Amino acid sequence: MPNYVVGHKIPDSDSICSAIALSYLKTTLGEETVPARLGELTPETLFILDKFGFEQPELKTSYAGENIYIVDHSERTQGPDDIDEATILGIIDHHKLGDITTSTPLEIWVRPVGCTNTIIKMMYDFHGVEIPKNIAGAMMCAILSDTVIFKSPTCTTADIKCVEALAKIAGIDNPTDVGMEMFKVKSAVDGTPVRDLVLRDFKDFNMNDNLVGIGQLEVIDLAIFDDMKADLEADIAKLKAEGNRHTVMLLLTDIMKEGSELLVISDNENLAEAAFGKATTDGKVWLDGVLSRKKQVVPPLQDVFA
Ligand code: MG
Ligand code: MG
Ligand code: MG
Fold this sequence. Notes:
There is one protein chain. By secondary structure, the protein is of the alpha/beta class. It has 2 domains: 3-184, inorganic pyrophosphatase (n-terminal core); 194-305, Diaminopimelate Epimerase, Chain A, domain 1 (Roll), CATH 3.10.310. Helices cover 38% and strands 21% of the residues. The chain has 10 helices and 11 strands. The protein has helices at 13-28, 43-52, 116-127, 133-146, 157-170, 175-187, 194-198, 229-242, 271-276, 293-305, and strands spanning 3-6, 33-37, 58-59, 67-71, 87-93, 107-110, 202-207, 210-219, 247-254, 259-266, 284-288. The strands form 2 sheets. The protein has a 6-stranded parallel sheet. Strands 7-8-9-10-11 form a 5-stranded mixed sheet. The radius of gyration is 19 Å and the shape is globular. The mean pLDDT is 97. The structure holds magnesium ion (3 copies).
């Protein structure tokens, strides 16, 4: 029975590329390990897999009785539903420490860097394993995605050095060009159902027993949303009404202007003002300089709920 590597629900490029890269490393080290995913892939991730010649990892949502590595998260709300029935061999992540616990000893690599793949590169270096060209390319793209081509405040020197090293292995001369190509794919939202956009990069957080769902769409020009903003607002209200969330937020991030318009629907009307010091007008507010959900949005919200 192989081990599995699985990232978070609503997988992004980091979750998928981490699963591929870690599986290869573990298998090379003698532990048969396969990558898996908890959901459908985004156009950005499909672009990366196609570019470097990978198949989609196996779609697998149940892990009862399996041995698994968790990548790119450590939150119970974001992992497999039956995670309690799996044996967790390791956690490799770059987010705040979540609430996943284990009953057996495990390997943990958690670092405050811009991307899980940066940590996995450290693991390859630690074990002295050479990274295959196509895996290096996929890892490089995941780092460019998570760090918003180095613009995100989550980006560290380690991430930049890692992209340089991976680009060299992959034979890519100008990684930022590949990054822009990727964000153009990501910005092509026209014709996509509104609910698909709301959930494209959506995460639930347990904030002091309040469920807070936060989606993010990163594009190269916010004007892309002009015609659909009203529909997006209506849909997050609908999503909230359908479930038991205290708050649903959607960050519309302009990676060139380097800020985000936040759409909010919440049981607490003053939540955005309390967290970000700026009140919403008609459920919307522009947050200048805000690019990172994990570093600039989740922590101030958590403080409000504390
Ligand atoms: Mg992720
Ligand atoms: Mg990540
Ligand atoms: Mg992200």
